[in-house]
Design a protein that fits this description.
heterodimer, A: 110 residues, mainly beta, 6-stranded mixed beta sheet, 5-stranded antiparallel beta sheet, B: 112 residues, 4-stranded antiparallel beta sheet
């Protein structure tokens, strides 16, 4: 059975801190891993990773995939209160439906 | 601008009633998906479609059905609503042969 496990489940940090969110997976026929940000509404797409060791970056957010150890990390540097959200990790296999983890709830305090 | 919409945004219904949630996208995406989101479970796949007349069951399909008569719409029907189906429902779509899905704003359904 396919599994996507995110850790930690929740996290509280101060503005300016750097955070690392983790996602490990067990999926047959892995094709890609995706990160989404969810505030009090629909998930919005952040990154899609398909190759090991290639960092994807967007502003203060970055992510990398390790296909040998079956995990990905999402880094957020110099956190701001606007980064407060649930971060979702999802994995695709041979089909195009996504298998989601339970998410990491991040709270950034002023 | 192309977009994906869901209606209604909020609905309260009674146990045993049939309910249909609408999903409409204007991106001309072939792939469409329905998920439900509950505390402690994350997003779980209900049904999905890769094109007109194609429908497939997901992880939690019992009590739900979909039909795909055109590219733009994938309505989700709860045949006989149960309290366990109280949830937030998200529709999503993606291009053929791509994994990146784009989500609608969600429908909050309460079954009393």
């Amino acid at each position: 059975e396919d599994k996507v496990v995110q850790s930690p489940l929740s996290l509280v940090v101060h503005e300016g801190d750097t955070v690392t969110l983790n996602c490990s997976y067990e999926v047959t026929n892995f094709r890609s891993l995706l990160w989404y940000k969810q505030e009090k509404k629909a998930p919005t797409f952040l990154f899609m990773l398909t190759s090991s060791g290639i960092e994807k970056k967007s502003g203060r957010l970055s992510s990398i995939l390790d296909k040998k150890e079956l995990f990905s990390i999402l880094n957020i540097t110099a956190t701001q209160t606007g980064d407060s959200a649930v971060y979702l990790c999802a994995v695709s296999n041979s089909g195009y439906a996504l298998n989601f983890g339970k998410g990491t709830s991040l709270l950034v305090t002023p | 601008d192309a977009e994906i919409t869901q209606s209604p945004r909020h609905k309260i219904t009674e146990t045993g009633r049939q309910v249909t949630l609408a999903c409409h996208q204007t991106w001309n995406h072939n792939n469409m998906f329905w998920y439900r989101q509950d505390l402690g479970h994350g997003l779980r796949l209900i049904h999905y479609s890769y094109g007109v007349q194609d429908t497939n069951k997901g992880e939690v399909s019992d009590g739900y059905s979909v039909s795909r008569s055109n590219t733009e719409d994938l309505p989700l029907t709860l045949e006989s609503a149960a309290s366990s189906q109280t949830s937030v429902y998200f529709c999503a779509s993606s291009l053929t042969n791509t994994d990146t899905q784009y989500f609608g704003p969600g429908t909050r359904l309460t079954v009393l």
